[in-house]
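User: Some background: our group keeps a shared notebook of sequences we're curious about, and every so often someone picks one and asks for a predicted structure to add to the entry. Today it's my turn. The entry only has the sequence so far, pasted here. Could you supply the structure so I can complete it?
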Amino acid sequence: MSDSVQQIKDKLDIIDVISPYVELIKAGKNYKGKSPFTSEKTPSFYVSPDRGMYYCFSTSQGGDMFTFVQAMEGVGFKDALTQLADKAGVELVPEDPKKRSERDRWYAALDAATQFYVAELQTTPPALKYLFDRGVTPVTAAEWQIGYAPGPPTRGWRETKDVLEKQGYKKEELITVGLIKQTDGGKEPFDVFRDRIVFPMSESSGRVVAFSGRILAKDSEAPKYVNSPETPLYKKSELLFGYDKAKTGIRTLGFSLIVEGQFDVVMAHQAGYHNTVAVSGTALTSHHVQLLERLSDKVVLALDADRAGIAAMKKGAELMLGRGMDVKVAPLPEGQDPADIIQNGVAEFKKVVGSSMHVIEFLLLILKQSETDVRALKLKAREEILPFVLLLPNRIDQEHFVTVIADKIGSTAEAIRFELDRLRDERKVSGVATHAAPETNAPVSPDTKDSVGSIQIAYAYLSAMKDLLGDKMSKIITAELEALPVQDLTVDAAELAKLTFTIEEQIVKQPKLTLQEEVVSRLNFLRTKLLQQKLAALRVGLTAAESGGNDIASIMVEIQTIQEQLKVPAKTIDIFV
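Assistant: Of course. Here's the predicted structure to add to the notebook entry:
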């Protein structure tokens, strides 16, 4: 796979890949243009043909030609690889023709089932009436290919199976894609979806890979909703319902709207919120978050206000905040979901979305409503709210919520900061990340921050400088970094692209001495912070060892060693002599 990637990069110029999407003009060694990810009047999108990278300063995203295609087309790496391989004329390692033929037939079987269900809907008045009563228009039903799967009490158990077998599809194929299932006792397999309104679920390219069915008969004892089982084509942890239709809307509106059910998605799109998606049969996963993050780092959650909805919201918020995303919650009236609100009036739903609040403010609101005891409220805030503050991408945002939380629970900002510091130390020991790397529009002066994120920035800055400066300085920086415990530090591709373009401008304008001083400052900062981080972890370990009655001598020796290392004089620009 890596050979194919390099072949594509060798044959394609990143300018040729980006030009169809962005009008680029020459700007020194680089090119610039208006961001394709947002509306802007002043160009903030830069491309370096020499390094094969781009960076958009208005949306803080960047990378190479593969990440660009992923962001613009809303596809995964494999699809971007295929597209660029076709453009470059690079032949990817061929797939087993037999497997390709099998998969093509699986997709075809699902398409045939979709058409069958759509046709059945038009001849089933109760199903049409149900959709009408839920507020779904005929145009929307056609656009989403909503259908009806026939079954008892008016039809048989094998309607879909019989129709598709007559079209030439084998029983084994229908089982594989989740349209029929085996029975006990050796009887003929029967339909998975019977007497249900069915929603086709598509992968990002728009191809149907599964279905979700809502029971029609009110007196039925069957489950209200049934989803396709996981198949070679359908992985519920990877699919977002509506994502194939929401990609453009998410970019245009600037945020993703996440709801719970298929009707919620369909009705939200019908109301003009073409940025709406939902998970199906699972909680939000890191793969789901990555899909959304490619298009926008802003999310609004419009989930049910019951206990299950709040639990799902917390889990999703933790994933997204941890990746540096801006997460808000649209507070829904109790007992109502988005589809209900939209049916009563689109204007009312717009008010709900418009009143979205940051997830931390929402969690505080819910906590205050459920906990009337003042002391218990403060203790629960420490356990349930502060961990989310640690996930925020920068200290300025964290400090904002320090004052908000202190005010809401009747505490002091100093007490909140103290508890946050304790949580940070606990998480450093357990290896849990406290927050994502902060976003900046220019390199951050290292002495102005003390977060884990700023350590990542310093490391990314030095990594970028290493590639931009002369050979001698580059070797010195490499040697200095190798002497530090930076094995667990990584450089995000977008962060590296941003710093590279920013630093490149500075190198032209600044004298060599200034650049050397900046590099030394970053190296000293990085060394100090890494030692302080290790010292904090040892102190927490010392407390645990003491309370457990364990030997603390070795920990004390380590602490003393690091304290001595911290007294070592800072490096100077003499390292470049």
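Suggested note for the entry: The CA atoms of residues 328 and 357 lie 5 Å apart. The chain has five domains: 2-88, 97-227, 240-355, 364-430, 446-576.
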